[in-house]
Design brief:
Elements lengths: L5 E6 L3 H12 L3 E7 L7 H4 L16 E4 L6 H6 L7 E4 L14 E6 L16 E5 L2 H12 L5 E3 L2 H32 L7 H13 L9 H4 L2 H13 L3 H17 L5
The protein binds NADP nicotinamide-adenine-dinucleotide phosphate.
Amino acid sequence: MSGREIKIGLFGAGNVGRHLLAAFREAPNVNIVGLWNRHPAKWKAVAGEIPVVPEPEQMPDADVFILALKDDVLQNFSRRLSGRDILTVHTSGAMPSDVLQTARRGVFYPLQTFAPESRVEWERVPLLVWASETNDLTLLQDLAGRISKNVRIIDDRQRAQLHVAAVFTSNFTNVMMQMARAITDKAGIPYELLLPLARQNFENILNNNPADVLTGPARRGDVRTIEKHLRLLREMGLANEAEIYKELTAWIRKRFDLDK
Ligand SMILES: NC(=O)c1ccc[n+]([C@@H]2O[C@H](COP(=O)([O-])OP(=O)(O)OC[C@H]3O[C@@H](n4cnc5c(N)ncnc54)[C@H](OP(=O)(O)O)[C@@H]3O)[C@@H](O)[C@H]2O)c1
């Protein structure tokens, strides 16, 4: 059941905007009435038959305006749409809904990482929606349900908290691998040797409680090995990485009561 047609005006041709455009194109009975971006040429290759409007004020009327824009610009940018009686939402995890300066406002937050070339399985992406007005919330649930099977209502505070957790899940695990690569590069060892370990580790984490599958020197309390690692990092000129190693080791020791 796709229900009535939902019209969308999409603002922002960044990572989220472009992935959302692809998702809405496939969705049942969703009509994208216009696209806007600060640099309109960015839409050129993908807009097809959809009009690209030069000014935000020229966006045709729609049921929902979606602002897939940088967090810091949402407040000022939304003032340009404040004269329109159209539900306006942003796609940010961290920003509250009332950052938008429109009378009807809400949030349409996809809890996923969107890199330029990544293939997104929209059906499985948690779509977290929020609006203070019941009718608006119902509309967002309906729209979200047309691209994902995992739609939740989450308020501003919980979404911001979840966003912090998402940073640990996604961004920080990414930089951990970047640090690992810095070490293998310095040592002249192929980084690829670490990839089966990364796969097995994620397999374990995803199928178990992470605390139950943690191994390694900090978890075992192998103090000499830890000292050796810190020495090696400093010898390689990786002092920042040594500090992070120390902090995480302290976190593990505390978490598992190893200092008692
Ligand atoms: N990427 C993710 O994994 C992810 C996941 C979930 C939610 N989000 C949220 O989605 C939103 C967009 O993120 P993104 O990753 O798509 O960002 P992005 O790829 O960096 O794109 C940023 C967008 O904001 C526009 N922009 C930047 N400065 C502007 C200004 N001064 N005035 C008007 N437009 C401006 C950019 O326009 P130009 O193209 O002209 O520079 C571009 O359309 C953010 O709120 C973010 O928190 C991101």
